[in-house]
Amino acid sequence: MKFTINRAVFTAKLNDVLRAISSKTTIPILTGLKIAVSDQDVTLTGSDADITIETVLPSSEESTNLTIEQAGAIVLPARFFSEIVKKLPDKLVTIEVSDGFQAQITSGSAAFTINGQDANNYPHLPEIETKDGVSLAGDVLKEIIGQTVLAVSTQESRPILTGIHLVLADNQLFAVATDSHRLAQRKITLPQAVQERYDVIIPGKSLTELSRMITDSQATVELRIAENQVLFVLGNTMFYSRLLEGNYPETSRLIPETEDTTIELNAAGFLAAIERASLLSHESRNNVVKLSVTAADNTAKITGNSPDVGNVEEAITTTSLSGADLEISFNPDYMKDALRSFGQSEIRLSFTSALRPFTLVPTQDAENFIQLITPVRTY
């Protein structure tokens, strides 16, 4: 096996594949990166058994400067190999495997030899038979992941909640995540209807890594679903993830249908105030910020208190406020995550009582995006 390639392009693709490789795997060969060279292209593969990323560098693309002298395959230690390639001096890098499983890496005046493993021992990729895919705009998919993954559970005690529940039916995509303390739900209308109904739970960790791979230039991402795998196709890169098995809890009943107090305000302004209040709340054991609403004089304020450090009080600028007086306490970190997902938009907070979950929705398009937070009992 021997090929020469543009080092910058090779490094970028290596970085993508490294997202799937973990040093904590129980299968030793999966700490390695598989390089397979054919007459036309070089394929890089990385996997941790949950996520598999495969990317192809074709010789037909000018930017790769790829010249292939001999086909073949090898598995090399991923982190070590990628650090070597990043630090090489020349614009081009040559990788050659002659006898056995040793790879020679040369670039300019630098030459490395590293030990590899037999590529035949590398696990086979999951097979996804279906060619029927759903095309999603890259920026839209990235936004949906960002707005929902924040509510994914990190507790393995309920594995099903560590994923995002994704439903594709007719011309709608529905995504929801909850860790039982908060919930994030997003709906979008697809440009064209899907032929089949898909109802899957994708690990939040997988979607976070996928989101990092979607660049601004990524116009579309194709989604293909099989029995226990999902495949996202991003140009020459294929991102496989296992699906979580089981039934996702019915989340629609968690969203209150009535409201006693509502506030409309700017998400970014409120976020800045919560960040100031949480400076003190983080110093106390319970990490709680309190929101007080007084309808009579149309005011809202937040307070934070740490017995060791002091307290903070700040009046909140609202564009509208209506309903009953209210005092409610919540985790400021949950509130900050929710507010960041709205960006600069105007939002409406709706409350039913001090101990019931409350919702945040954009004032425009309120039906399609909901964040829900469970308050903290302070007495």
UniProtKB/TrEMBL annotation:
CDD domains, alphabetized: beta_clamp
UniProt record, GO biological process: DNA strand elongation involved in DNA replication
Alphabetized SUPFAM superfamilies for the sequence: DNA clamp (SSF55979)
One Gene Ontology MF term: 3'-5' exonuclease activity
Name under which the protein is recorded: Beta sliding clamp
Organism: Paucilactobacillus wasatchensis
Cellular localisation: Cytoplasm
Keyword terms, alphabetized: Cytoplasm, DNA replication, DNA-binding, DNA-directed DNA polymerase, Nucleotidyltransferase, Transferase
InterPro entries: DNA_clamp_sf, DNA_polIII_beta, DNA_polIII_beta_C, DNA_polIII_beta_cen, DNA_polIII_beta_N
